[in-house]
Amino acid sequence: MFINMRYLKVDKGIETKFKEDAKKKTCIYNSKEGQIHYFNFLVNISLYSGEYF
Length: 53
Fold this sequence. Notes:
Structural class: mainly alpha
Radius of gyration: 12 Å
Strand content: under 5%
Number of strands: 0
Largest sheet: none
Helix content: 25-40%
Oligomer: single chain
Number of domains: 1
């Protein structure tokens, strides 16, 4: 198993648009047969609090 992570800092005021667009893009990638599945998480506690990975 291989895990690749990255943190995304979303500018204030576009969080809702980011969530909607990330959901659409994730659904597109995860619906393809044989593709690696992607997951998005909002970090609540840590140095990266408020960012996505």
